[in-house]
Amino acid sequence: MELKQKIEELLHIDANEYEISQTIREYIKNYFSSLDKLFEKTQGKDFFVKHTRYIDSIITSIYKVAMRKTFGFYLPMSNSVPVTLVALGSYGREQMAPYSDIDLMIVYEEVEGYNIQALIEKILYIIWDTKLKLGHRVHKLSELSEVANEDDTIKTALIESRFICGSKYLWVNIENRLKKVRQSNQKEFVFKKIEEAQKRRIKNPISMEPNVKESIGSLRDANLLFWIANVVYGIRSLKELQSRVFSDEEYNEFRVALEWIFRLRGALHLVCKKKEDRLLMQYIPDVAQKLLGSNDKKAQSVLVSRTLQALHTIDTFTSIFIKKIIRRFLFEPHNVTVLKSTRITKDIYICDDVIYVSFFKTGSSLKELLTLLQLDIKEFDPSFLHYAKSIHVPNNLEKNHLKLIKKLFYKPVLFPTLDALFKSNLLPIVIPPLKKVMFLPQFDGYHAYPVDIHSLMCIKALENIKDAKVAEVYEMLDTEYKALLKLAVLLHDAGKGRRSDHSLVGAKLIRSFALALGFSEEMADIGAILIKYHTLMSKTAFREDIHSEKVVFSFIAKLQKPIVLDMLYVLTYADINGVGKTIYTSYNAHLLHELYKIAKESFSNTEILEESAKRIKKENALKRNPTFQNLPKTLQKKILSIESNLFFIKNKTEEILQICQKAAEVKDFVVEVHNDEYLSIEIWRKVPLNLGYLLGKLSYLDIASMEVFKLFDSVKYFKIEFLEKVNDEEVPYVYKIVEASFDMSKQIRLKKPDIAPYEITIDCNHSKSYASMHLNVKNQKGLLAYIAHIFDQYGIDIATAKVHTIKNRARDLFLIEKNGNFCVNKDAIIQLLTN
């Protein structure tokens, strides 16, 4: 049974108002449960119109019930009762989403013989009893002008008023009053609404979770354009301004974007079953299913991307045409002379670093636009966007375009230019590598912006560095490196949206584009390295032990040159700041600078740098080895966590596996002696080794090298190689010496070597975990044994030793664990070692 018929039956049996309201409430409940099916048939503005008209029918039915209950069988004509129900806001525009508040205004006049107040109260009580979400105001006709002039919010609401039911005669009078309201204080009203919008846009910036009602480019911006156009032109629909203020093509593009936002808002309300205008992450799968018929990752990405693009279109359209409409309020005759003096070319002006273009200027070439952008422009008026959107875009960039594009990156302040290109839809035309990341969402829980906005925000951060240490490094770069760095910052995420690693894709993109722009091969390669490793510095600083030799030298091995480190440091700063205002903290700033400082110093040690690069290759080879792949995951992890680069470099893949597999089986110690081409001793030990005694007993033999590697699970691996082999009969004797060396009580008298103080360099701040000692001395028998003996006396633990003899000079490097014994006794150790 239809609601009207049911209400008539209830009125016929004289049901009370509460009973009638509960019946209406039940019909409303059933209606809302059917909205999902309605949404399948119709969406967007049409869905809102149908919903609005249903609410109109409910309000009209309630009005009729109140009239019948008030007047009974003596019901007068509705025009005779001076009460009119008026829809306001989105309800008035017929754009009301399902769970939005119903903005209702009741206008009346006092007439003797009618108890108007009682009638109005009856209407409101019935509505409240139905549980409709009502936002209402009640005014006398005579009050409308006064309240509108006192409160711009009320004036705005009245602009969007629409007749629902009641006295049409009174509605005519209301419209006459509203016409006067629209015409009063136009300039003041317009600028107040623009000021409100600016505050709202700052509060609700574009993000990965946009508010489709309040964000930049949202419904509020579309409404703002309508309010201003309504006040200025008296129109009831923006469509009336086609061919008058904007072209059919411009309006159609805007309407398509607005229709998508309408569809999205409707879907959001239905999915959430409440008033919700934020496209939060948790709603995206269900909204995608509702709008696109799928909720897989691709559909979710398309949903957010289309939303961001629609918001962008609305933002640009409203910005341009609000400015065009309000020109009449900005015109001052005395400014004409000033404007003429700032003319750059016909219809183009730069005044106080702001560029203005006549709305009549269209049809320029891309070359003309790029030439214009070479000028020092800090702000772009919306009139420029109108001009830029009208230019003729070539199918491909030509050489003269590329030269001009390259020059843009040498501008001290590039962000406003890129932002203007973005707003005018020219950014992917001028910077083709960005095409696939325009409006591309990032569902990583870290980035607040889509890729394109994030890239622009990174450029903005680069040109407004707040960290003095980063700024100092940036200012030391010459103009060529600064230009390349700006290009790298802009393109660092250009490889996203593909199946392959975005860093690798991005590296290829920048190299190709940099060469096309005219950068040298060397500079293009640097750009590729920067993007390939653009997340490396933050990951290393925030997740790794930056005082570890392995970590630091692995880091700098990838960068290859100190200048790349400088540029990556600044790029990392810009990248983090481009994520959001609160991401770059004093703590991570400290970590980044510490890593930068350590890495900068480490570049001077080219020998270790080369070792680190080789280690990376060896690790990769190891990971591909079937034997390694079949090892338990825990053992694999232990092997790759071994500190020493030299361990990986000196040993073949198979040797690394053999050494580590034996290490995993060691209980106390294992000894192997080889006497093939030369004598060599391998020791795996968990228990202490009297190294001074061992080397002293073997000092009659010339040691070619000794390597000490700390492996894992407290196992140390020693490999001592000699210059010659021994008689086979001596091998058992060597075994006995090694086994006896695990007796820590054994001692041996050793000759003190000839070492000068300047031949020893000790660095107790070599890293967080290790101190270092470098020797560059004359090679002499017993040298290593004596050093090991002194270390044993002080309980000093050698983590890694590099022993190397060239041209009768021993160049030894010892990394010593910071257990408190080495650095506190370094002066005594130097005294014992030197003459």
Summarize it:
The protein has 835 residues and is α+β, with helices and mostly antiparallel strands.
The protein's oligomeric status is single chain
Distance between the first and last residues' Cα: 113 Å
CATH class value of the largest domain: Alpha Beta
The CATH topology of the largest domain turns out to be Beta Polymerase, domain 2
The Cα radius of gyration reads 39 Å
- Tell me which CATH architecture of the largest domain applies here: 2-Layer Sandwich
Largest sheet: 8 strands, antiparallel
Q: List unreliable stretches of 5+ residues.
A: none
> CATH-wise, what's the superfamily of the largest domain?
Beta Polymerase, domain 2
- Count of beta strands: 16
Tell me what you see in this structure.
The chain is an alpha+beta fold. The chain has four domains: 3-183, Beta Polymerase, domain 2 (2-Layer Sandwich), CATH 3.30.460; 188-331, Nucleotidyltransferases  domain 2 (Four Helix Bundle (Hemerythrin (Met), subunit A)), CATH 1.20.120; 431-604, Hypothetical protein af1432 (Orthogonal Bundle); 666-833, no CATH class. Helix content is 54%, strand content 12%. The protein contains 39 helices and 16 strands. The strands form three sheets. The chain has an eight-stranded antiparallel sheet with strand order 9-10-12-11-15-16-14-13, with helices on both faces. The chain is elongated.
